[in-house]
């Protein structure tokens, strides 16, 4: 259940007290101040989640190398322990290395997909600050455990599989948690743009994970995992100190829910002007805590309430009470929300494509060009740079047109020829064309995936059919992302098998087919979007 005023983060208490002492007479829009902090904290959190996922794709280039024909890096000190294993690493030093490395990806991703549904159920019913803190600490530890295989000379395949599976379960705390927190703090206005910019944490995490891993991949690949793992643990402690999962937890009014109109409290009775001018969000004497939040456009009540309630304060407290009392929706109930099934299945194929690039792009670049492991990893960053632009572009287009399904469909359609061109001419052309194609591919592949997992999930999780007291955001997010994560598990597994027993061309055919299927699954929603668009034009 949601936290109370007595359950505020320690770091926030200290920060709030310090600000009040230093600037006692300064007027601050506290709601905006807290919203900015929430965006920063959740951005930090999920950047770290993805940062700890990325090293395995970089280290694959080294684990599967044949050391007998290579010389160690100049700064690598050979000793009796690592003389024969400075680059390759049993059991990944055989011809079946791609399949075995694909098994590690599958262990992580299938565990992630299976646990995601349970994670959403739990996230809807617990304090998200503790939920995210525990998940981040556990994820950091699991990443660190993979890295210590290097100094402790661990060569058991099942050790790596088990660590990856544990990491997959722990990482499911991230997405339902951060999306629900952001959804709690922000209304529907420009949600696509806000989520599009905010969702760049996924690509930034991939970029940081790649850069850190590439720095150590040829000298001591264990550090490629241990440093991100430690960073993740520190970030988890920051979340514990400062994150407020819901405005209600500090006495603030949540964003206006769908169906409510704006209510001007400036001219209302008794304390209304005080609420507007000084932003007094909470005046609970028992807790002896006063929080000031400016919410000129945050208080909203329906027309029946404005006629029946004489005091806006009574209306406010009743809404706060109703928010805490809201029942969490069940799994079946979430599936009945219009659009959840279509977007879930669509995301299955979208994440299949995205995660195949996430886990195999550095190795593909290395195999199809003359670039070494470090340069291949650095080149793969361009895909994530394009992904940042894609997430923002998809969010802006969705806000501007009001047609999320059409936005996704256009990106899926254009992605197919781009992937075809990259497959056939990317590796054989110059560096400049390679860079451009990777940026465009990242933009088109990541755009719809980012839009569905953020703005669309938040929209469906607050669907009007739920009523005002149902809590469904974490559950809907988990269903959509969990279904997508099954595709994310299947894609890298198939890519590993195909690259070993077939060719990389067939891997790209699989990716292009997945994009087309994702497009077809949105057909009904595309038709509905266009119907609404033309109806509005006619009116």
Note down, in words, how this protein is organized.
69% of the residues lie in helices and 2% in strands. The longest helix has 31 residues, at 431-461. The strands form 2 sheets. It has a two-stranded antiparallel sheet with strand order 1-4. It is globular and about 65 Å long. The protein has 21 helices and 4 strands. It is mainly α and 539 residues long.
Which structural traits does this protein have?
two-stranded antiparallel sheet, mainly alpha, 539 residues, 69% helix
How do you describe this structure in short?
69% of the residues lie in helices and 2% in strands. The chain has 21 helices and four strands.
How is this fold's topology laid out?
Layout: H1 10-22, H2 30-51, H3 55-63, H4 97-123, H5 128-147, H6 157-171, H7 174-185, H8 191-198, H9 200-216, H10 221-242, E1 261-262, H11 272-278, E2 280-284, E3 289-292, E4 300-301, H12 303-308, H13 312-325, H14 331-335, H15 340-368, H16 373-401, H17 404-426, H18 431-461, H19 473-501, H20 504-521, H21 523-538
Antiparallel strand pairs: 1-4, 2-3
């Amino acid at each position: 259940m949601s936290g109370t005023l007595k359950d505020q983060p320690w770091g926030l208490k200290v920060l709030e007290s310090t600000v009040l002492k230093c600037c006692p007479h300064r007027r601050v829009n506290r709601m905006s101040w807290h919203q900015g902090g929430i965006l920063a904290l959740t951005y930090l959190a999920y950047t770290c989640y993805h940062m700890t996922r990325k090293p395995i794709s970089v280290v694959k280039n080294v684990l599967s190398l044949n050391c007998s024909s290579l010389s160690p890096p100049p700064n690598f000190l050979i000793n009796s322990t690592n003389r024969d294993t400075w680059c390759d690493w049993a059991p990944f030093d055989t011809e079946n290395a791609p399949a075995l490395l694909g098994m590690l990806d599958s262990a992580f991703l299938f565990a992630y997909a299976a646990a995601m549904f349970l994670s959403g159920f739990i996230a809807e019913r617990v304090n998200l600050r503790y939920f995210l803190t525990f998940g981040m600490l556990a994820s950091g530890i699991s990443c660190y455990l993979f890295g210590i295989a290097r100094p402790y000379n661990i060569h058991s395949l099942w050790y790596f599989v088990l660590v990856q599976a544990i990491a997959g379960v722990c990482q499911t705390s991230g997405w339902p948690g951060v999306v629900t927190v952001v959804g709690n703090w922000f209304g529907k206005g420009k949600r696509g743009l806000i989520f599009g910019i905010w969702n760049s944490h996924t690509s930034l995490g991939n970029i940081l994970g790649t850069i850190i891993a590439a720095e150590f991949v040829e000298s001591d690949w264990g550090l490629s995992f241990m440093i991100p793992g430690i960073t993740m643990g520190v970030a988890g402690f920051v979340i514990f100190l400062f994150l407020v999962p819901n405005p209600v937890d500090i006495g603030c009014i949540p964003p206006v829910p769908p169906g409510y109109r704006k209510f001007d409290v400036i001219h209302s009775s008794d304390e209304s002007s005080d609420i507007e001018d000084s932003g007094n969000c909470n005046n609970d004497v028992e807790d002896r805590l006063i929080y000031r939040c400016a919410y000129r456009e945050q208080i909203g009540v329906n027309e029946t309430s404005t006629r029946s309630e004489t005091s806006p304060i009574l209306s406010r407290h009743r809404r706060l009470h109703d928010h805490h009392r809201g029942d969490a929706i069940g799994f079946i109930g979430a599936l009945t929300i219009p659009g959840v099934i279509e977007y879930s299945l669509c995301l299955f194929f979208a994440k299949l494509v995205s995660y195949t690039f996430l886990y195999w792009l550095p190795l593909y670049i290395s195999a199809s060009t003359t670039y070494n492991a470090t340069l291949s990893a650095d080149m793969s960053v361009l895909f994530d740079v394009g992904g940042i632009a894609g997430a923002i572009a998809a969010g802006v287009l969705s806000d501007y047109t009001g047609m999320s399904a059409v936005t996704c469909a256009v990106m899926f359609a254009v992605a197919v020829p781009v992937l075809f061109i990259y497959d056939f001419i990317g590796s054989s052309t110059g560096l400049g064309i390679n860079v451009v194609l990777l940026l465009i591919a990242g933009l088109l592949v990541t755009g719809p995936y980012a839009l569905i997992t953020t703005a669309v999930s938040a929209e469906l999780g607050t669907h009007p059919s739920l009523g005002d007291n149902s809590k469904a955001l974490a559950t809907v997010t988990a269903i959509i992302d969990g279904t997508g994560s099954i595709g994310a598990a299947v894609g890298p597994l198939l890519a590993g098998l195909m690259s070993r027993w077939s060719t990389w061309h067939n891997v790209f055919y699989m990716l292009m087919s997945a994009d087309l299927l994702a497009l077809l699954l949105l057909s009904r929603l595309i038709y509905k979007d266009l119907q609404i668009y033309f109806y509005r034009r006619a009116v």
